[in-house]
User: What shape does this take?
Amino acid sequence: MLFINNEFIDSELGLTFPVINPTTEDTICTVSEASEEDVNKAVLAARRAFSNTSPWRTMDASERAKLIYKLCELMERDQQYLASLDTLDNGKPYTESLGDVEYSIKTLRYYAGWCDKIHGQTVPCDGDYMCLTQREPVGVVGQIIPWNYPVMMLAWKWGPALATGCTIILKPAELTPISSLYIGALVKEAGFPPGVVNIVPGMGEIAGHAISKHPDIDKVAFTGSTAVGHKVMQAASISNLKRITMELGGKSPVVVCEDCGNLDEAVELCHNAVFSNHGQNCCAGSRTFVHESIYEEFVKKSVKLAHERIVGDPFDEETQQGPQVSQMQMERILGYIEKGKNEGATLECGGERVGNQGYFIQPTVFSNVTDDMTIAKEEIFGPVQVILRFSTMDEVIERSNKTQYGLASGIVTTDINKALTFAQTIRAGSVWVNCYDVCLPQTPFGGYKQSGQGRELGEEGLTEYLEMKTIVIKVPSKL
Assistant: This one.
């Protein structure tokens, strides 16, 4: 059911959609499908909750923090259940889902701590005036999250929105709505006033579009593909020019230098950079650049790791890789693998579906890949490692930057000068040196170019949910 104004209700049109278990291909449950009318209802509830005299707007900031902390306690109480829900409808290994929930709780607690620390300044000015600034919540925000990290993406969006005092309409991905709806029940249990949080599962082209173009929504935050990001931005611009933050696609480079130190560790780092979460990760290190002097040995070791990767039941503690999230996603990835073979890349291992039940794909490694190949240019979003050869730092920096994306990047080297040169010249929102995909609640995250706009996490993430007001007061005389 939909969660609107602290109540679970059926959709206005009575529509539902099935949620599929990607491991078994069975239907887990059916969920109410939000229409434009349902989004309107959620916006009305959120707008009432944001009114000047509402309990939420008149609440002390420290009390707002207590509500977020209470939500964290409830999520911690139910973390195993939440992790099980994500594994059921996403397919990621249970241990990874549990880690996602723990990280999400940390993120919400981080932002709870900010509630009573958001303030303005006094500004010296000419003449007999006193000037001060005030930071206020932007208002009603629409949030559209993807299916690859269901609980985590909810926390990334809710944390700064709740800390600043905004009200929320969340549209979870139609493939993975269950954990979001369960957290809706925890929101009510925690004591949040009605209308502060509303959850409208549904299709992107209907519910998502309705959020993006709604004239009474003040901001939209979207995480997903670059193609859909264009549509969200267009809808926002032709309605009320609402503010936008977007974290979109990527084709992130990981550069392994000849002086990488321990080659086995470098291979493992790059393996995890691309295969983590089944490759379904916006900042996956999906272009592995390896220096020509160590290229052949690196490929050999990478193939060995891919062969050893355990694919299977995500509830089995030995499993490292479960199914892809859907049949469509599996077929899309297999299509990219065929393009790689047809365009002349060397398929070192994998490349096939595993079994005939569930959306499993073999861990796949391509070598002898060139920059003009489709698998080197487009986001595959699956367990496919693409290994390219390079000769010099100047060359690999230029090639790394030659993409429409700019979300993340990494370099493995023992030379601090190379590391700093790479970090300062790469056009990407995150640069990881001798590590990869280290995202902390305190550190800003976002992309350059067509990988997005704005930042999430850290203090920077708060600014996306705040307006700045300047107040100038005439005084009798300047002291």
Observations:
- The longest strand covers residues 129-137.
- Residues 112 and 259 are 43 Å apart (CA to CA).
